[in-house]
Design a protein that fits this description.
Length: about 450
């Protein structure tokens, strides 16, 4: 304590009081100071906005009238809108004396946190301030973490070639960062995860950030080939090595020499092919089918599977020594259902600005379980883009059976950031009814959000 006031600490909560009545300022200063809440004082809207620009403030308590000859509340309305324009998420409590309560209620609808009549009840005021400060602190922490993650993602994009991968979830961020780190290691990588989740994209990240990124990137789907042709596909074959082999041809290992070979669905490789693959991984040597000539290549092998290789080893259908040779580094790609933060960014990337997603469609997308993962999401968006009306995708266009414990919110409860609203208005060329329809809002609801954010119509 110093001079009866708490010392300012780095984490002390700060409330800005904007009121021209010294008695009000003193009363609030004492009342909040007893709870270790720092108060800043401003006697006019101009002074309050100047303080807000200089100081870190967690909450604002503002009067509605500042001239002695007015009780309209117009000054308070203008001040609130100015604060909202500068600090959209800063909680504001309105102090009303002469102002009609209808004015304060309208501002609460526009985003004010609370309103209290003068003279106020100390217990109610303190409870409101404490609750809002706690919420503000949580919001700041969330905002800080989001900012750190955005900065980290930006750093990853600057340092590595992410092949345009779209993601927002922490799970994908960690996986991509690990893939970039292991890319430069000359070691086999095993990517595991369900079908359609994006294993090939992770393999591309590994290749294009490796020392062989200038070499070829070759893929082969071991699950899409007849088992009697997989070996020929991988290692090549001489003329007459099998029915239909009219001429000699190189396999995928030769095509990938000096680069990376992705062996997708590695669990489908027959035991004979597994033995040859193990030899290539250990020595770099192999023979084409029907040939005794030994060939040698330098290939970075990345394999991928949705199968449980450990269970296949126990069943005797996958070689244990090959498993450990392939699994020097394992990258586990979670299903889309476990990373819901990626759903909307991926959907936006798939629509590519050609159409818009209504708020109800966004809710439906997030609620869906996506058993087909990213592939299912892409197909759903492509289908909906063709079926939608007026360039806006709605839930019916998606054709999804939603199974979720999360209730769909009414469209007027959906919150949008300033950029989303401004872009919708720009696409509608300023026609508010059209922009509101795209966002799934009524005109009145859109006007309220525009007023709250200080967006000019």
């Amino acid at each position: 304590m110093r001079d009866g006031r708490p010392l300012l600490t780095k984490s002390m909560r700060t409330v800005l009081v904007i009121d021209d009545n010294p008695a009000v300022v003193t009363a609030l200063d004492v009342l909040l100071g007893l709870r270790d809440i720092r108060t800043l004082h401003a006697a006019s809207p101009e002074e309050g906005l100047a303080l807000l620009a200089r100081e870190r403030v967690d909450l604002v308590l503002q009067d509605m009238n500042f001239r002695a000859d007015t009780t309209s509340g117009e000054e308070g309305v203008a001040l609130f809108r100015a604060i909202r324009e500068r600090e959209p998420d800063l909680p504001v409590i309105l102090l009303t004396a002469w102002t009609h309560l209808e004015t304060a209620i309208e501002l609460v609808k526009a985003g004010a946190a609370d309103y209290l009549a003068k003279p106020w009840d100390d217990h109610k005021l303190v409870a409101s301030v404490e609750n809002l400060l706690e919420l503000s602190e949580s919001a700041r922490e969330v905002s800080r973490l989001r900012g750190e993650r955005r900065a980290h993602r930006s750093t990853l994009r600057e340092q590595f070639d992410l092949r345009g991968t779209v993601y927002a979830s922490l799970a994908m961020e960690r996986l991509i960062e690990l893939a970039c780190r292991v890319a430069r290691a000359d070691a086999p990588v095993l990517i595991t995860g369900p079908n359609g989740a994006g294993k090939e994209r992770i393999a591309e990240i590994v290749h294009y950030n490796s020392v062989v990124k200038a070499g070829p990137f070759v893929t082969v789907n071991c699950g899409a080939l007849p088992q009697d042709l997989i070996e020929a596909e991988l290692f090549g074959a001489e003329a007459g090595a099998y029915t239909g082999a009219n001429k000699a041809r190189a396999g995928r290992f030769e095509a990938a020499d000096g680069g990376t070979l992705l062996l997708d669905e590695i669990g489908n490789l027959p035991m004979s092919g597994q033995m040859k693959l193990l030899r290539v991984l250990e020595t770099g040597k192999f023979e084409r089918l029907g040939s005794s000539k030994t060939r040698e290549v330098k290939v970075r092998v990345v394999s991928a599977t949705n199968a449980n290789l450990a269970a296949m080893i126990r069943a005797g259908t996958f070689r244990e020594d090959l498993y450990y040779r392939l699994n020097v580094i394992e990258l586990v790609l979670p299903p889309l259902a476990q990373r819901p933060d990626d759903v909307l960014p991926l959907a936006e990337a798939f629509v590519a600005g050609d159409v818009a997603l209504s708020p109800q469609a966004r809710t439906t997308l997030v609620a869906h379980s996506w058993p087909g993962n990213v592939r299912e999401l892409k197909n759903a968006i492509q289908r909906a883009s063709l079926l939608c009306r007026d360039g806006v995708i709605r839930p019916d266009d998606l054709g999804l059976a939603v199974h979720s414990t999360v209730p769909a919110r009414a469209s007027n409860d959906v919150e949008f950031d300033r950029e989303t609203i401004e872009q919708a208005i720009a696409r509608a060329k300023g026609v508010i009814s059209q922009a509101a329809a795209e966002l799934g809002l009524s005109r009145q609801a859109l006007y309220r959000r525009m007023e709250k954010m200080g967006i000019e119509s």
